[in-house]
Amino acid sequence: MNFEHFIAKRLLTTKDHKSSISAPIIKIAITAIALGMIMMIVSIATGIGLQQKIRQKVAAFSGHIIISNFNGNESDVSTEPISIHQKFYPKFKNIEGIQHVQAVVTKVGIIRTATDFEGIIYKGVGKDFDWENLKEYLVSGTIPNLKGELNNEIVISEYLANRLNLKLGANFNTLFMKQNGNGLPNIRRFKIVGIYNSGMQEFDSSYILGDIRHLQRMNRWSPDQVGCFEVFISDFTQIKQKGDEVYQETSSVLKSQTIEEKYSYIFDWLKLFDFNIVVILIIMIVVSTINMVVALLVLILERTQMIGILKSMGANNWSIRKIFLYNAYYLILRGLFWGNFIGIGLLVIQKYFGIIKLPPENYYVTVAPVDINLLFIAALNIGTVVVCLVVLLIPSYLITKIVPAKTIRFD
């Protein structure tokens, strides 16, 4: 039988324990640990969830890596054609972790209706375009049919549709300036077959998606000429490494740029979440540890007579310290249980019901996303237990200063 564990268990289950002076302090310590764990779980889940969601949205419209001409301008418009006869298209053979490569063309235009007009970027896509990245943002309608003959079907954002008073199935004219800027603009009439809402104003206020062949004809490009290539990778954490590898695999007349570089202002903002999460973790662990230290000191001071009796019976200091550390360990576990139960419960509710909404103009999402990662949660629990117990070794040293002759009383 483990002597220290047996004594600690008896101390926790005794009736006097529940009515002792330390009882409210113990409850406060358990509550502090539970609240701390709830805050840590929620902050990590929402922080990582928001980062992943925004990365996913940016990649859906631009890919993870963009390959374009060196002599092209820095805007989102395709000015110089690139041949599709590249060693990396339609698939990178020398780089692992590349999921998909697609060719696109972009061109600035103006949508003109009977009462309104709006500047847009027409993104021409072909048969190789992966619509799975955008399907989750489709609020009505379907995707254009690009497998047959050239057609006028497009997907427009809900934001643009509302501003232009356009509905699903509506037709509208779009004006495109000619490549050399001279002469009358090209006019194309499109039909809305799908409406999307990504929640990112940057894209929703500009992009419509349709057949790439319209732009190739307007630019007088051949069918094997495109504006740029969008590359998707399987692991976003390796984006810098894969970006360098892609650059090495492309010819000297092409450049590659990761979305972290192109949209640096978005990803620099996302990195702030990492700092905020670390600060929250430190504060919550410190608060939980301080409460446990106070609770342990009260327990020790309340049991000084018992400590003196155990010492007089031959128990050494470390053995007695282990009794109180076991006691603290049980209290920590109780706090962690309730913290995990409530914290994970809140995340599950948010994940499936989306109760907490966010303004998309500030956070790029309409619903607060969460990422329930059990490995992170397990690491939080283990880290909290280890840190608390290590810190509690310091106040438990008080036991070595208790002298049996001064603490044992016979009433």
What does this entry show, briefly?
With 411 residues, the protein is an alpha+beta fold. Helices cover 51% and strands 18% of the residues.
Strand ordering within the main sheet: 3-4-9-6-8-7
How many angstroms separate the termini? 31 Å
Residue-averaged pLDDT, rounded?
86
Q: What proportion strand? A: 15-25%
- Please work out how many helical segments DSSP would assign: 15
Are there runs of 5+ residues with pLDDT below 50, and where?
none
The largest pleated sheet is described as: 6 strands, mixed, barrel
Query: Structural class of the helix and strand makeup?
Result: alpha+beta
Number of strands: 12
Judging from the principal axes of the Cα atoms, what is the shape?
elongated
Summary tags:
411 residues, alpha+beta, six-stranded mixed beta barrel, two-stranded antiparallel ribbon, 12 strands, 51% helix
Can you give a write-up of this model?
With 411 residues, the protein is an alpha+beta fold. The chain has 15 helices and twelve strands. It has helices at residues 3-13, 15-18, 22-62, 132-135, 158-163, 201-204, 212-218, 239-249, 259-262, 264-302, 304-312, 317-353, 360-363, 374-396, 404-407; strands spanning 65-69, 82-83, 98-112, 117-125, 138-141, 153-157, 171-176, 186-196, 207-211, 225-226, 228-233, 254-258. The strands form two sheets. A six-stranded mixed beta barrel has the order 3-4-9-6-8-7. It has a two-stranded antiparallel ribbon with strand order 2-10. A hairpin with a 4-residue loop joins β3 and β4 (117-125). α1 (3-13) packs across α12 (317-353), α3 crosses α12 and α3 runs antiparallel to α14 (374-396). The mean pLDDT is 86.
